[in-house]
Design brief:
The protein has 15 helices and 19 strands. By secondary structure, it is α+β, with helices and mostly antiparallel strands. Strands 1, 2, 3, 4, 5, 6, 7 and 19 form an eight-stranded mixed beta sheet that branches. Strands 10-13-9-12-11 form a five-stranded antiparallel beta sheet, with no helix packed on it. Helix 1 packs parallel to helix 11 (about 475-495), helix 8 (about 315-340) packs across helix 9 (about 345-350) and helix 11 crosses helix 12 (about 500-510). The termini are far apart.
Length: about 625
Protein backbone atom coordinates (compact mmCIF):
# COMPACT_ATOMS: atom_id res chain seq x y z
CA UNK A 1 0.00 0.00 0.00
CA UNK A 2 1.43 3.35 -1.06
CA UNK A 3 1.20 6.09 1.52
CA UNK A 4 -0.75 9.26 0.70
CA UNK A 5 1.27 12.17 -0.61
CA UNK A 6 0.91 14.10 2.62
CA UNK A 7 2.64 11.32 4.56
CA UNK A 8 6.02 11.89 2.95
CA UNK A 9 8.62 13.51 5.18
CA UNK A 10 10.86 14.63 2.31
CA UNK A 11 9.59 16.25 -0.85
CA UNK A 12 11.62 17.04 -3.95
CA UNK A 13 10.76 20.37 -5.58
CA UNK A 14 11.59 21.37 -9.15
CA UNK A 15 10.40 24.03 -11.52
CA UNK A 16 9.67 21.54 -14.30
CA UNK A 17 9.00 17.81 -13.86
CA UNK A 18 9.28 15.64 -16.98
CA UNK A 19 7.99 12.08 -16.96
CA UNK A 20 9.56 9.98 -19.72
CA UNK A 21 13.20 9.95 -20.79
CA UNK A 22 12.24 9.93 -24.46
CA UNK A 23 13.94 12.29 -26.94
CA UNK A 24 10.95 14.59 -26.43
CA UNK A 25 11.47 14.51 -22.67
CA UNK A 26 15.17 15.24 -23.12
CA UNK A 27 14.41 18.21 -25.36
CA UNK A 28 11.86 19.52 -22.85
CA UNK A 29 14.44 19.29 -20.06
CA UNK A 30 17.04 21.19 -22.06
CA UNK A 31 14.59 23.91 -23.13
CA UNK A 32 13.52 24.48 -19.54
CA UNK A 33 17.07 24.47 -18.17
CA UNK A 34 18.52 26.88 -20.69
CA UNK A 35 15.92 29.40 -19.54
CA UNK A 36 17.26 29.19 -16.00
CA UNK A 37 14.84 26.68 -14.47
CA UNK A 38 15.46 23.48 -12.56
CA UNK A 39 14.16 20.33 -14.22
CA UNK A 40 13.97 16.66 -13.32
CA UNK A 41 13.77 13.96 -15.98
CA UNK A 42 12.26 10.65 -14.82
CA UNK A 43 12.92 7.48 -16.81
CA UNK A 44 11.50 4.04 -16.05
CA UNK A 45 14.38 2.02 -17.50
CA UNK A 46 18.10 2.15 -16.82
CA UNK A 47 18.81 4.28 -19.89
CA UNK A 48 17.48 7.55 -21.30
CA UNK A 49 16.90 8.14 -25.00
CA UNK A 50 13.69 6.31 -25.84
CA UNK A 51 13.55 4.68 -29.25
CA UNK A 52 16.48 6.67 -30.68
CA UNK A 53 18.66 4.84 -28.16
CA UNK A 54 16.84 1.56 -28.75
CA UNK A 55 17.31 0.74 -32.40
CA UNK A 56 15.48 3.46 -34.29
CA UNK A 57 18.66 4.61 -35.98
CA UNK A 58 17.03 5.70 -39.24
CA UNK A 59 15.39 8.98 -38.30
CA UNK A 60 12.03 9.26 -40.02
CA UNK A 61 11.48 12.67 -41.57
CA UNK A 62 9.97 13.45 -44.95
CA UNK A 63 11.78 16.74 -45.59
CA UNK A 64 15.15 17.34 -44.01
CA UNK A 65 15.35 20.83 -42.58
CA UNK A 66 11.64 21.00 -41.82
CA UNK A 67 12.33 20.24 -38.15
CA UNK A 68 15.39 21.66 -36.39
CA UNK A 69 15.99 23.34 -33.01
CA UNK A 70 17.32 20.85 -30.44
CA UNK A 71 16.77 18.05 -32.94
CA UNK A 72 18.93 19.97 -35.41
CA UNK A 73 21.62 20.28 -32.77
CA UNK A 74 21.42 16.55 -32.16
CA UNK A 75 21.90 15.51 -35.79
CA UNK A 76 24.77 17.99 -36.10
CA UNK A 77 26.47 16.33 -33.14
CA UNK A 78 25.93 12.90 -34.68
CA UNK A 79 27.57 14.02 -37.90
CA UNK A 80 30.50 15.58 -36.06
CA UNK A 81 30.95 12.48 -33.90
CA UNK A 82 31.45 10.24 -36.92
CA UNK A 83 33.71 12.77 -38.65
CA UNK A 84 35.87 13.25 -35.58
CA UNK A 85 36.03 9.58 -34.65
CA UNK A 86 36.66 8.06 -38.08
CA UNK A 87 37.81 10.93 -40.30
CA UNK A 88 35.87 13.07 -42.80
CA UNK A 89 36.12 10.56 -45.65
CA UNK A 90 35.32 7.43 -43.66
CA UNK A 91 32.43 5.15 -44.65
CA UNK A 92 30.88 5.75 -41.23
CA UNK A 93 30.43 9.41 -42.17
CA UNK A 94 28.63 8.45 -45.37
CA UNK A 95 26.47 5.88 -43.60
CA UNK A 96 25.42 8.40 -40.93
CA UNK A 97 23.61 10.23 -43.74
CA UNK A 98 24.47 13.74 -42.57
CA UNK A 99 23.61 12.82 -38.98
CA UNK A 100 20.18 11.32 -39.61
CA UNK A 101 21.34 7.70 -39.23
CA UNK A 102 23.13 6.58 -36.08
CA UNK A 103 23.89 3.60 -33.89
CA UNK A 104 21.75 3.30 -30.73
CA UNK A 105 24.76 3.43 -28.42
CA UNK A 106 25.94 6.64 -30.07
CA UNK A 107 22.46 8.16 -29.79
CA UNK A 108 22.45 7.39 -26.07
CA UNK A 109 25.93 8.87 -25.68
CA UNK A 110 25.14 12.13 -27.45
CA UNK A 111 21.77 12.63 -25.76
CA UNK A 112 23.40 12.09 -22.35
CA UNK A 113 26.10 14.63 -23.22
CA UNK A 114 23.46 17.17 -24.22
CA UNK A 115 21.73 16.76 -20.86
CA UNK A 116 25.01 16.94 -18.93
CA UNK A 117 25.71 20.41 -20.34
CA UNK A 118 22.89 21.78 -18.15
CA UNK A 119 23.65 21.39 -14.44
CA UNK A 120 20.11 22.37 -13.44
CA UNK A 121 18.77 19.13 -14.97
CA UNK A 122 18.49 16.13 -12.66
CA UNK A 123 18.13 12.73 -14.34
CA UNK A 124 16.72 9.79 -12.40
CA UNK A 125 16.46 6.36 -14.00
CA UNK A 126 14.50 3.33 -12.77
CA UNK A 127 11.63 5.64 -11.80
CA UNK A 128 8.22 4.31 -12.72
CA UNK A 129 5.04 6.34 -12.94
CA UNK A 130 1.88 4.28 -12.74
CA UNK A 131 -1.17 5.78 -14.43
CA UNK A 132 -3.38 5.87 -11.35
CA UNK A 133 -5.29 8.95 -10.13
CA UNK A 134 -3.88 8.53 -6.62
CA UNK A 135 -0.40 9.19 -8.02
CA UNK A 136 -1.28 12.76 -9.00
CA UNK A 137 -2.07 15.69 -6.70
CA UNK A 138 -4.42 18.25 -8.23
CA UNK A 139 -5.10 21.65 -6.72
CA UNK A 140 -7.98 23.50 -8.39
CA UNK A 141 -7.51 21.35 -11.49
CA UNK A 142 -3.77 21.95 -11.67
CA UNK A 143 -1.12 19.25 -11.29
CA UNK A 144 1.14 20.16 -8.36
CA UNK A 145 2.78 16.86 -7.39
CA UNK A 146 3.20 13.25 -8.45
CA UNK A 147 4.50 10.13 -6.83
CA UNK A 148 6.67 7.56 -8.53
CA UNK A 149 8.10 4.15 -7.74
CA UNK A 150 11.84 3.78 -7.31
CA UNK A 151 12.28 0.41 -9.02
CA UNK A 152 15.68 -0.12 -7.40
CA UNK A 153 14.63 0.35 -3.77
CA UNK A 154 10.88 -0.22 -3.96
CA UNK A 155 10.28 3.11 -2.24
CA UNK A 156 7.72 5.68 -3.33
CA UNK A 157 9.00 9.18 -4.02
CA UNK A 158 7.07 12.40 -4.14
CA UNK A 159 7.98 15.20 -6.52
CA UNK A 160 6.43 18.63 -6.61
CA UNK A 161 6.71 21.01 -9.52
CA UNK A 162 5.43 24.21 -11.03
CA UNK A 163 4.88 22.62 -14.46
CA UNK A 164 4.66 18.96 -15.45
CA UNK A 165 5.39 17.50 -18.88
CA UNK A 166 4.17 14.06 -19.91
CA UNK A 167 6.78 12.87 -22.41
CA UNK A 168 5.78 9.20 -22.22
CA UNK A 169 4.83 7.36 -25.39
CA UNK A 170 1.62 6.25 -23.69
CA UNK A 171 0.33 9.48 -22.11
CA UNK A 172 0.29 7.90 -18.65
CA UNK A 173 0.61 11.08 -16.57
CA UNK A 174 -2.07 12.93 -18.53
CA UNK A 175 -4.49 10.03 -18.12
CA UNK A 176 -3.85 9.78 -14.39
CA UNK A 177 -4.43 13.54 -14.07
CA UNK A 178 -7.87 13.19 -15.65
CA UNK A 179 -7.23 14.51 -19.15
CA UNK A 180 -9.58 13.03 -21.77
CA UNK A 181 -7.99 10.76 -24.37
CA UNK A 182 -8.70 8.47 -27.27
CA UNK A 183 -7.39 5.01 -28.16
CA UNK A 184 -8.05 3.27 -31.46
CA UNK A 185 -9.31 4.49 -34.81
CA UNK A 186 -11.91 7.12 -35.61
CA UNK A 187 -14.47 6.31 -38.27
CA UNK A 188 -14.08 7.77 -41.75
CA UNK A 189 -17.20 9.88 -41.38
CA UNK A 190 -16.14 11.55 -38.11
CA UNK A 191 -13.56 13.91 -39.65
CA UNK A 192 -13.80 12.96 -43.32
CA UNK A 193 -10.33 11.38 -43.29
CA UNK A 194 -10.01 9.05 -46.31
CA UNK A 195 -7.83 6.45 -44.53
CA UNK A 196 -9.79 6.40 -41.27
CA UNK A 197 -11.45 3.35 -39.80
CA UNK A 198 -11.14 -0.22 -41.05
CA UNK A 199 -9.29 -0.33 -44.37
CA UNK A 200 -7.63 -2.89 -46.61
CA UNK A 201 -5.19 -1.65 -49.20
CA UNK A 202 -1.88 -2.59 -50.71
CA UNK A 203 0.79 -0.35 -49.23
CA UNK A 204 0.80 2.96 -51.15
CA UNK A 205 -1.80 1.70 -53.65
CA UNK A 206 -4.39 4.20 -54.83
CA UNK A 207 -7.62 2.30 -54.17
CA UNK A 208 -9.07 0.62 -51.14
CA UNK A 209 -9.85 -3.09 -51.35
CA UNK A 210 -13.19 -4.74 -50.58
CA UNK A 211 -13.98 -4.93 -46.88
CA UNK A 212 -12.84 -1.37 -46.20
CA UNK A 213 -15.81 -0.26 -44.15
CA UNK A 214 -14.22 2.88 -42.73
CA UNK A 215 -15.81 2.13 -39.36
CA UNK A 216 -14.00 3.14 -36.20
CA UNK A 217 -12.78 0.61 -33.62
CA UNK A 218 -10.35 0.12 -30.74
CA UNK A 219 -7.53 -1.20 -32.94
CA UNK A 220 -4.00 0.13 -32.33
CA UNK A 221 -1.30 -0.03 -34.99
CA UNK A 222 1.27 -2.77 -34.46
CA UNK A 223 4.42 -2.43 -32.36
CA UNK A 224 7.77 -4.10 -32.91
CA UNK A 225 11.42 -3.77 -31.96
CA UNK A 226 13.77 -1.78 -34.17
CA UNK A 227 16.66 -4.20 -34.60
CA UNK A 228 20.31 -3.16 -35.03
CA UNK A 229 21.51 -6.23 -36.95
CA UNK A 230 24.96 -6.83 -38.44
CA UNK A 231 26.80 -9.34 -40.60
CA UNK A 232 30.24 -8.10 -39.54
CA UNK A 233 31.62 -11.41 -38.27
CA UNK A 234 33.58 -10.10 -35.28
CA UNK A 235 30.56 -8.11 -34.04
CA UNK A 236 27.83 -10.60 -34.89
CA UNK A 237 25.92 -12.49 -32.16
CA UNK A 238 24.03 -15.50 -33.61
CA UNK A 239 20.25 -15.63 -33.26
CA UNK A 240 19.23 -18.24 -30.72
CA UNK A 241 16.01 -20.22 -30.87
CA UNK A 242 13.64 -19.02 -28.09
CA UNK A 243 12.67 -21.64 -25.54
CA UNK A 244 8.97 -21.15 -26.35
CA UNK A 245 9.46 -21.14 -30.13
CA UNK A 246 6.21 -21.77 -32.05
CA UNK A 247 6.79 -22.59 -35.72
CA UNK A 248 3.07 -22.30 -36.49
CA UNK A 249 3.30 -18.53 -36.11
CA UNK A 250 5.57 -18.22 -39.13
CA UNK A 251 4.81 -21.22 -41.33
CA UNK A 252 2.49 -19.33 -43.74
CA UNK A 253 5.60 -17.52 -45.00
CA UNK A 254 6.62 -20.75 -46.76
CA UNK A 255 3.56 -20.64 -49.02
CA UNK A 256 4.16 -16.93 -49.65
CA UNK A 257 7.57 -17.84 -51.07
CA UNK A 258 6.16 -20.62 -53.23
CA UNK A 259 3.48 -18.37 -54.71
CA UNK A 260 5.63 -15.23 -54.77
CA UNK A 261 2.82 -13.68 -52.73
CA UNK A 262 3.22 -10.30 -51.02
CA UNK A 263 1.03 -7.83 -49.17
CA UNK A 264 1.86 -4.93 -51.50
CA UNK A 265 3.02 -4.18 -55.00
CA UNK A 266 6.66 -3.08 -54.88
CA UNK A 267 9.30 -2.04 -57.40
CA UNK A 268 11.95 -4.65 -58.21
CA UNK A 269 14.79 -4.90 -55.73
CA UNK A 270 18.04 -6.60 -56.84
CA UNK A 271 18.54 -8.22 -53.43
CA UNK A 272 14.91 -8.74 -52.55
CA UNK A 273 13.93 -12.21 -53.72
CA UNK A 274 16.30 -14.31 -51.63
CA UNK A 275 17.67 -12.18 -48.81
CA UNK A 276 16.66 -10.72 -45.48
CA UNK A 277 15.26 -7.74 -47.42
CA UNK A 278 12.41 -10.03 -48.47
CA UNK A 279 10.98 -9.94 -44.94
CA UNK A 280 12.76 -7.13 -43.04
CA UNK A 281 13.04 -3.49 -44.07
CA UNK A 282 16.74 -2.56 -44.02
CA UNK A 283 18.32 0.88 -43.57
CA UNK A 284 22.09 1.18 -43.28
CA UNK A 285 23.70 2.64 -40.18
CA UNK A 286 27.40 3.20 -39.53
CA UNK A 287 29.81 0.35 -38.74
CA UNK A 288 28.07 -2.31 -40.76
CA UNK A 289 24.77 -2.23 -38.87
CA UNK A 290 21.24 -1.90 -40.11
CA UNK A 291 18.07 -0.56 -38.60
CA UNK A 292 15.84 -3.58 -39.16
CA UNK A 293 12.16 -2.69 -39.27
CA UNK A 294 8.92 -4.40 -40.21
CA UNK A 295 8.56 -4.95 -43.95
CA UNK A 296 5.28 -3.60 -45.31
CA UNK A 297 5.32 -6.00 -48.24
CA UNK A 298 5.55 -9.18 -46.18
CA UNK A 299 2.46 -10.64 -44.53
CA UNK A 300 4.72 -11.71 -41.67
CA UNK A 301 7.60 -9.57 -40.42
CA UNK A 302 8.72 -8.09 -37.09
CA UNK A 303 5.38 -6.42 -36.29
CA UNK A 304 3.00 -8.29 -34.00
CA UNK A 305 -0.48 -6.83 -34.62
CA UNK A 306 -3.55 -7.23 -32.42
CA UNK A 307 -1.76 -8.45 -29.31
CA UNK A 308 -0.58 -4.91 -28.51
CA UNK A 309 -4.04 -3.32 -28.42
CA UNK A 310 -4.25 -3.25 -24.59
CA UNK A 311 -0.80 -1.60 -24.23
CA UNK A 312 -1.82 2.11 -24.09
CA UNK A 313 -4.07 1.70 -21.05
CA UNK A 314 -2.49 -1.33 -19.34
CA UNK A 315 -0.25 -1.32 -16.29
CA UNK A 316 3.48 -2.00 -16.45
CA UNK A 317 3.10 -5.62 -15.40
CA UNK A 318 1.05 -6.31 -18.54
CA UNK A 319 3.38 -4.23 -20.70
CA UNK A 320 6.45 -6.10 -19.45
CA UNK A 321 4.77 -9.42 -20.23
CA UNK A 322 3.95 -8.29 -23.74
CA UNK A 323 7.48 -6.93 -24.24
CA UNK A 324 8.89 -10.38 -23.50
CA UNK A 325 6.30 -12.00 -25.77
CA UNK A 326 7.28 -9.61 -28.58
CA UNK A 327 10.99 -10.28 -28.02
CA UNK A 328 10.45 -14.04 -28.23
CA UNK A 329 8.25 -13.64 -31.31
CA UNK A 330 10.89 -11.49 -33.01
CA UNK A 331 13.80 -13.81 -32.27
CA UNK A 332 11.65 -16.77 -33.27
CA UNK A 333 10.85 -15.09 -36.59
CA UNK A 334 14.53 -14.47 -37.34
CA UNK A 335 15.46 -18.03 -36.29
CA UNK A 336 12.71 -19.40 -38.56
CA UNK A 337 14.05 -17.40 -41.53
CA UNK A 338 17.56 -18.71 -40.89
CA UNK A 339 16.79 -22.35 -40.15
CA UNK A 340 13.45 -23.72 -41.33
CA UNK A 341 14.10 -26.46 -43.87
CA UNK A 342 11.02 -25.68 -45.96
CA UNK A 343 12.25 -22.21 -46.83
CA UNK A 344 14.53 -21.78 -49.88
CA UNK A 345 18.11 -22.74 -49.03
CA UNK A 346 19.64 -19.60 -50.51
CA UNK A 347 17.24 -17.42 -48.51
CA UNK A 348 18.15 -19.22 -45.30
CA UNK A 349 21.85 -18.89 -46.04
CA UNK A 350 21.59 -15.15 -46.68
CA UNK A 351 19.51 -14.58 -43.55
CA UNK A 352 21.97 -16.62 -41.48
CA UNK A 353 24.70 -14.09 -42.19
CA UNK A 354 22.91 -11.62 -39.91
CA UNK A 355 22.90 -11.45 -36.13
CA UNK A 356 22.53 -9.08 -33.20
CA UNK A 357 25.24 -6.44 -32.73
CA UNK A 358 27.64 -7.43 -29.94
CA UNK A 359 28.42 -3.81 -29.02
CA UNK A 360 24.77 -2.76 -28.59
CA UNK A 361 22.57 -3.28 -25.50
CA UNK A 362 25.35 -5.13 -23.73
CA UNK A 363 23.30 -5.35 -20.52
CA UNK A 364 20.24 -6.78 -22.29
CA UNK A 365 21.50 -9.70 -24.35
CA UNK A 366 22.28 -7.34 -27.26
CA UNK A 367 18.55 -6.84 -27.77
CA UNK A 368 16.73 -3.45 -27.64
CA UNK A 369 15.42 -2.51 -24.22
CA UNK A 370 12.23 -0.78 -25.33
CA UNK A 371 9.27 -1.73 -27.49
CA UNK A 372 8.58 0.60 -30.41
CA UNK A 373 5.29 2.11 -29.21
CA UNK A 374 4.10 3.80 -32.37
CA UNK A 375 0.88 5.03 -30.85
CA UNK A 376 -0.46 5.12 -27.30
CA UNK A 377 -3.18 7.28 -25.91
CA UNK A 378 -4.00 10.43 -27.83
CA UNK A 379 -4.68 13.06 -25.19
CA UNK A 380 -7.36 15.50 -26.26
CA UNK A 381 -6.15 19.09 -26.25
CA UNK A 382 -7.19 22.57 -27.23
CA UNK A 383 -6.86 21.59 -30.89
CA UNK A 384 -7.31 18.22 -32.62
CA UNK A 385 -4.76 17.53 -35.37
CA UNK A 386 -6.27 15.56 -38.28
CA UNK A 387 -5.06 14.41 -41.68
CA UNK A 388 -6.31 17.68 -43.14
CA UNK A 389 -3.69 19.61 -41.14
CA UNK A 390 -0.94 17.75 -43.04
CA UNK A 391 -2.57 17.80 -46.48
CA UNK A 392 -2.20 20.65 -49.01
CA UNK A 393 -5.30 22.80 -49.34
CA UNK A 394 -4.79 22.74 -53.11
CA UNK A 395 -2.36 21.01 -55.50
CA UNK A 396 1.13 22.41 -54.89
CA UNK A 397 -0.05 24.54 -51.98
CA UNK A 398 0.66 24.24 -48.27
CA UNK A 399 -1.49 22.55 -45.66
CA UNK A 400 -3.47 24.95 -43.42
CA UNK A 401 -1.32 27.42 -41.50
CA UNK A 402 -1.46 27.58 -37.71
CA UNK A 403 -0.70 30.99 -36.25
CA UNK A 404 0.47 29.39 -32.99
CA UNK A 405 2.86 26.96 -34.73
CA UNK A 406 5.71 25.73 -32.53
CA UNK A 407 7.40 23.60 -35.19
CA UNK A 408 7.16 22.61 -38.78
CA UNK A 409 7.23 18.91 -39.55
CA UNK A 410 6.82 16.47 -42.38
CA UNK A 411 6.22 12.77 -42.75
CA UNK A 412 3.75 10.72 -44.71
CA UNK A 413 0.39 9.88 -43.20
CA UNK A 414 1.53 6.40 -42.31
CA UNK A 415 0.23 3.52 -40.20
CA UNK A 416 1.25 -0.09 -39.74
CA UNK A 417 -1.25 -2.93 -39.71
CA UNK A 418 -3.66 -3.35 -36.82
CA UNK A 419 -4.61 -6.99 -37.46
CA UNK A 420 -2.78 -10.18 -38.37
CA UNK A 421 -3.37 -11.72 -41.77
CA UNK A 422 -6.95 -12.85 -42.25
CA UNK A 423 -8.05 -15.83 -44.39
CA UNK A 424 -9.12 -14.71 -47.84
CA UNK A 425 -7.84 -11.15 -47.41
CA UNK A 426 -5.10 -10.10 -49.85
CA UNK A 427 -4.03 -7.23 -47.59
CA UNK A 428 -3.50 -6.47 -43.92
CA UNK A 429 -6.02 -4.25 -42.14
CA UNK A 430 -4.75 -0.79 -41.26
CA UNK A 431 -1.72 -0.30 -43.49
CA UNK A 432 -1.62 3.00 -45.33
CA UNK A 433 0.92 5.52 -46.51
CA UNK A 434 -0.43 8.75 -47.98
CA UNK A 435 1.54 11.74 -49.19
CA UNK A 436 1.52 14.91 -47.14
CA UNK A 437 3.46 18.19 -47.29
CA UNK A 438 5.52 20.11 -44.72
CA UNK A 439 3.02 21.46 -42.24
CA UNK A 440 2.80 23.64 -39.14
CA UNK A 441 2.02 22.18 -35.71
CA UNK A 442 -0.04 24.30 -33.29
CA UNK A 443 0.91 24.73 -29.65
CA UNK A 444 -2.66 23.88 -28.71
CA UNK A 445 -2.23 20.15 -29.45
CA UNK A 446 0.09 19.74 -26.44
CA UNK A 447 -2.25 21.60 -24.03
CA UNK A 448 -4.65 19.00 -22.59
CA UNK A 449 -8.26 19.75 -21.85
CA UNK A 450 -9.53 19.80 -18.26
CA UNK A 451 -6.06 19.83 -16.65
CA UNK A 452 -3.76 22.74 -15.87
CA UNK A 453 -0.03 22.74 -15.16
CA UNK A 454 0.57 19.95 -17.70
CA UNK A 455 1.79 19.69 -21.29
CA UNK A 456 1.72 16.54 -23.46
CA UNK A 457 4.17 16.69 -26.41
CA UNK A 458 4.20 12.96 -27.35
CA UNK A 459 0.71 11.57 -26.76
CA UNK A 460 -0.53 14.73 -28.43
CA UNK A 461 -4.05 15.71 -29.43
CA UNK A 462 -4.71 14.06 -32.78
CA UNK A 463 -6.82 11.53 -34.58
CA UNK A 464 -5.31 8.16 -35.42
CA UNK A 465 -4.57 9.49 -38.92
CA UNK A 466 -3.25 12.81 -37.64
CA UNK A 467 -0.88 11.12 -35.19
CA UNK A 468 0.37 8.84 -37.96
CA UNK A 469 2.48 11.74 -39.27
CA UNK A 470 3.19 13.52 -35.97
CA UNK A 471 4.52 10.31 -34.37
CA UNK A 472 8.11 10.64 -35.57
CA UNK A 473 10.91 11.40 -33.13
CA UNK A 474 12.04 14.66 -34.83
CA UNK A 475 8.53 16.11 -34.43
CA UNK A 476 8.13 14.75 -30.91
CA UNK A 477 11.52 16.22 -30.01
CA UNK A 478 10.46 19.62 -31.37
CA UNK A 479 7.20 19.48 -29.43
CA UNK A 480 9.19 18.60 -26.32
CA UNK A 481 11.38 21.66 -26.88
CA UNK A 482 8.26 23.81 -27.24
CA UNK A 483 6.84 22.31 -24.04
CA UNK A 484 10.01 23.09 -22.08
CA UNK A 485 10.12 26.66 -23.38
CA UNK A 486 6.41 27.15 -22.67
CA UNK A 487 6.90 25.83 -19.14
CA UNK A 488 9.68 28.35 -18.55
CA UNK A 489 7.53 31.20 -19.87
CA UNK A 490 4.58 30.15 -17.73
CA UNK A 491 6.72 30.07 -14.60
CA UNK A 492 8.43 33.39 -15.33
CA UNK A 493 5.21 35.20 -16.19
CA UNK A 494 2.89 33.52 -13.71
CA UNK A 495 0.39 32.64 -16.43
CA UNK A 496 -1.36 29.29 -16.95
CA UNK A 497 0.04 27.21 -19.80
CA UNK A 498 -3.08 27.56 -21.91
CA UNK A 499 -2.95 31.36 -21.61
CA UNK A 500 0.69 32.10 -22.32
CA UNK A 501 1.63 34.53 -25.07
CA UNK A 502 2.37 32.19 -27.98
CA UNK A 503 4.10 34.99 -29.90
CA UNK A 504 6.64 35.30 -27.08
CA UNK A 505 7.03 31.53 -27.16
CA UNK A 506 7.69 31.69 -30.89
CA UNK A 507 10.32 34.40 -30.37
CA UNK A 508 12.11 32.13 -27.92
CA UNK A 509 11.96 29.16 -30.29
CA UNK A 510 13.05 31.14 -33.33
CA UNK A 511 16.15 32.49 -31.65
CA UNK A 512 17.03 28.87 -30.83
CA UNK A 513 16.92 27.87 -34.49
CA UNK A 514 13.47 26.28 -34.56
CA UNK A 515 11.54 26.15 -37.84
CA UNK A 516 7.93 27.26 -37.43
CA UNK A 517 7.10 27.17 -41.15
CA UNK A 518 9.27 25.44 -43.71
CA UNK A 519 10.82 27.27 -46.67
CA UNK A 520 13.07 25.57 -49.17
CA UNK A 521 15.43 28.50 -49.49
CA UNK A 522 15.51 30.16 -46.09
CA UNK A 523 16.95 28.40 -43.04
CA UNK A 524 17.84 29.52 -39.50
CA UNK A 525 20.87 31.79 -39.47
CA UNK A 526 19.89 33.79 -42.53
CA UNK A 527 19.38 37.52 -42.00
CA UNK A 528 15.70 38.25 -41.67
CA UNK A 529 14.88 34.63 -40.83
CA UNK A 530 12.72 35.41 -37.81
CA UNK A 531 10.69 38.01 -39.69
CA UNK A 532 10.16 35.68 -42.65
CA UNK A 533 8.92 32.95 -40.33
CA UNK A 534 6.33 35.19 -38.66
CA UNK A 535 5.25 36.69 -41.98
CA UNK A 536 4.89 33.23 -43.46
CA UNK A 537 2.61 32.05 -40.66
CA UNK A 538 0.41 35.07 -41.36
CA UNK A 539 0.21 34.31 -45.07
CA UNK A 540 2.25 37.34 -46.11
CA UNK A 541 4.85 35.18 -47.88
CA UNK A 542 3.12 32.56 -49.97
CA UNK A 543 4.58 29.51 -51.67
CA UNK A 544 7.54 27.36 -50.64
CA UNK A 545 10.29 29.94 -51.20
CA UNK A 546 11.09 33.27 -49.58
CA UNK A 547 13.23 34.38 -52.53
CA UNK A 548 15.17 36.67 -50.16
CA UNK A 549 16.99 38.57 -52.90
CA UNK A 550 13.83 39.53 -54.78
CA UNK A 551 12.95 43.23 -54.66
CA UNK A 552 9.67 44.37 -53.11
CA UNK A 553 8.01 47.77 -53.33
CA UNK A 554 7.78 50.22 -50.46
CA UNK A 555 4.07 49.54 -49.95
CA UNK A 556 4.64 45.80 -49.47
CA UNK A 557 7.58 46.48 -47.15
CA UNK A 558 5.43 48.84 -45.07
CA UNK A 559 2.66 46.25 -44.88
CA UNK A 560 5.10 43.59 -43.71
CA UNK A 561 6.57 45.88 -41.08
CA UNK A 562 3.10 46.68 -39.80
CA UNK A 563 2.29 42.97 -39.60
CA UNK A 564 5.41 42.45 -37.48
CA UNK A 565 4.62 45.39 -35.20
CA UNK A 566 7.56 47.46 -36.44
CA UNK A 567 7.67 51.19 -36.96
CA UNK A 568 7.38 52.40 -40.52
CA UNK A 569 10.66 53.57 -42.02
CA UNK A 570 11.38 55.99 -44.81
CA UNK A 571 12.28 53.93 -47.89
CA UNK A 572 14.49 56.63 -49.40
CA UNK A 573 16.47 55.26 -52.35
CA UNK A 574 17.48 52.03 -50.63
CA UNK A 575 16.43 48.86 -52.39
CA UNK A 576 14.26 46.61 -50.26
CA UNK A 577 14.45 42.85 -50.71
CA UNK A 578 12.19 40.12 -49.35
CA UNK A 579 14.95 38.98 -47.00
CA UNK A 580 15.94 42.40 -45.71
CA UNK A 581 12.94 43.07 -43.47
CA UNK A 582 14.45 43.33 -40.01
CA UNK A 583 13.22 41.02 -37.25
CA UNK A 584 11.22 42.56 -34.41
CA UNK A 585 13.41 44.62 -32.12
CA UNK A 586 12.78 42.30 -29.19
CA UNK A 587 14.30 39.50 -31.21
CA UNK A 588 17.43 41.52 -31.90
CA UNK A 589 17.76 42.41 -28.23
CA UNK A 590 17.27 38.79 -27.22
CA UNK A 591 19.90 37.67 -29.72
CA UNK A 592 22.41 40.17 -28.31
CA UNK A 593 21.67 38.99 -24.78
CA UNK A 594 22.13 35.39 -25.92
CA UNK A 595 25.54 36.25 -27.32
CA UNK A 596 26.58 37.90 -24.07
CA UNK A 597 25.31 34.92 -22.07
CA UNK A 598 27.36 32.52 -24.16
CA UNK A 599 30.41 34.75 -23.86
CA UNK A 600 30.21 34.68 -20.09
CA UNK A 601 29.12 31.01 -19.95
CA UNK A 602 26.20 31.97 -17.79
CA UNK A 603 22.63 30.87 -18.51
CA UNK A 604 19.95 32.80 -16.66
CA UNK A 605 16.24 33.33 -17.02
CA UNK A 606 15.43 34.98 -20.32
CA UNK A 607 14.82 38.73 -19.89
CA UNK A 608 11.74 40.51 -21.10
CA UNK A 609 11.68 43.14 -23.84
CA UNK A 610 10.10 41.09 -26.61
CA UNK A 611 8.25 42.51 -29.57
CA UNK A 612 4.69 43.68 -29.00
CA UNK A 613 1.97 41.09 -29.33
CA UNK A 614 0.34 40.98 -32.73
Amino acid sequence: MIAPLGCFAAVDDYDVVIVGGTPSGIAASIAAARNGHSAILLERTTHIGGLMANGLGATDIGTRGATLGIFGDYIKRVREYYKTTYGPGAPQVEDCSDGYHFEPSIAAKILAEMLAEHPTITVRVMRQFDALPENVTLENGRVTAIRILNRETGATEQIRGKVFIDATYEGDLAAAAGAPYRVGREGRSEYNEPMAGRIYRAWRAEKLAPGSSGLGDNAVQAYNYRLPLTRVAENRVPIEKPSNYNRDEYVSLIEDFRLNREAAVTPPHPDRARTLVRVVNVTMMPNGKIDGNNHHCSFISTDLPEENWPWPTSDWAWRDTFAKRLRDYTLGFLWFCQNDAELPADFRAECSAWGLARDEFTDNGNFPRQVYVREGRRVMGEYLFTSHDATPVAPGARPPLHLDSVTASHYWLDSHAVRKREPGRPHLDGFFSEESAPYTVPYRIIVPKNVDGLLVPVAASATHIGLSTLRMEPCWMALGEAAGAAAAQSIAGGKPLRKIDTLKLQHELLRRGVVLIYYRDFAPGNAGYEAAQLLGLRGAISGWNVNPGELIDAKTAASWRKTLGLKASSPGKKKITRGSISPPCGMRQAARRDKMERRHSCRRSRPTGLAPEL
